[in-house]
Specification:
With 410 residues, this protein is an alpha+beta fold. The protein is built from 7 helices and 21 strands. It has a domain of 41 residues.
Amino acid sequence: MMASTRRPGHRAGSCPGAVALLAALLALGCTPGSSGGSGGNGGGGGLDGGTPEPDPDPDPEAEALAGRIAAYYCDLVDNCAQSSTEFGVIRQFIDAGGDCEAWFAASLGSLPGGLAGGELVIDEAAFDRCVQRSVESCLFLDEVPDCQEAVTGMRASDDPCTGSDECAPGLYCDYDGGPGIAGECNDICAPRRAAGESCEEDDECAGGPDQLGLCRFADPGDFEGTCARVGIGARAGADAPCGLVEEGGALTRVACADGHYCDQDLDAESGTCRPTPTEGEPCAGSGTPCVGGICVFGACTALEIGSEAGAPCDPRMLQICNPLAGLVCVDGACVATDGSLGAPCSDDDFSPGCDEGLYCGEDGACQRQLADGEPCDGETGYIVCASNYCEVDGDAGTCAPNPFDRAICE
């Protein structure tokens, strides 16, 4: 049995390709072009997405795409809330009075400029199939075949690149593929690899008819895997296998039917569908979704969600301010925030973050990230520095250009 297919990014701060681009736009992964300061914990998406500053000259195409993506994400949450801890919590925020589409549209931030400049191309038919099948199957975008070519670039084989989303269909950005020294700006677009060939990331592997390319690893600690192709299976009921399921030599992604979740060990490819527990019922741990609450100390426990300013809050007591209502917990009370400079913020779980270019300071207010040359702490430099990098020399640190930022190669 092969093991986990989830691998760390080839380089810090990188987004591996078109699928990851869509995932990032949906606040499911890394954020292309993000300053990295959009949340108190340095995250650029998910529940810590924050509300970016409005674009003074918004692109109508990008705004329309943001709206479509936000609507999709809310449909996914609505349809799959009982299969995912994150989705279940967001569903509770919505039920408590949060505006799902407005919040997710704002959380997307600045969409990649390549959309307006013609460097990125959206295949509308593939995009529509991608989001529809994701909602129907309760699978994430990087698990749906139609998503791999939904957003692509224009660059041909052997053209320089800084990410796979810049490469034409059938190509990925090979970070060590050029003639220069490995890791020193020699990234080029290259053909995706066939099933059975070696790989390090999913993005390197070609899919097939209704199949997604996947880099599969024999052991979670391995750094080299083998390309495989994966289809989508029907949602399964109680006690049926789920996750990455192999049968007769064929691989499929299988999510669980309504009211069930995939009980799966962290490093395992597959698991078993179990009924989603409800409030007061036993649960296995923080990875277990709960209907109407979260899993705490082995029991599904209700969240107390404040959706109006002034509501009491204490995350330790599961009193949470509703981020979908633009609220953050400050000194035991929910306070409205817009993520702007000087606005209140918190690095507690489920709190809105700060706008792009800002971070949540120790004083509980959004502050500007530091420019290159300013002093920083090596432990928090990825948050406080605009470059997301603190160069440390002994006990001192200085914000500096990020050596992992491939954009500096162009």
